[in-house]
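debug: dumping io for the single-chain case to check the tokenizer round-trip. Nothing else runs in this session.
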Amino acid sequence: MTPSKVDGAGEAMCPHRLVLEHVTSRWAVLVLSTLLNRPYRFGELRREVNGVGGRAVSEKMLAQTLQTLERDGLVHRDAKPVIPPRVDYWLTDLGREAAEQVRALALWADRRMDDVQRARATYDETRAAHDKARDETRAAPGTMRDEPSAAPGTTRAARDEARAAASAVRAS
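debug: decoded output
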């Protein structure tokens, strides 16, 4: 997620969508949730996010995510001019509000995951049965593909008569 390279038109047309994309992106959800606890330095934040996310966030991706969230006013970046450089990140009031909403959605997903898994299994079974029935119908003799094609301009009655004749031949 790079900070929006604003062409002006995209952001002006649908700024709401862009903010939702930023807040709900893969790494932003983890960053916002982590920053709810306390301010973090970059390295600490990366380790914490990696401990939660399953896959490791690269330094580049974390930096881009933080830049985007900072641009949107959700994260504050405080760079201290010391050696080695010290940069701390924390949520703004706006960011805290967004993070609480994201956390609520994450908690809901965690609570309802069994229901989602059951729904997926039901869908997959139904879809597989439907696909199997469709494939069997297509492969069966006497399907529409095996029927004689009607010449252009043939009336509906003539087509129906040809189909009935083809069915009678197959039945015998």
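debug: round-trip ok. The two ends are 66 Å apart (CA to CA).
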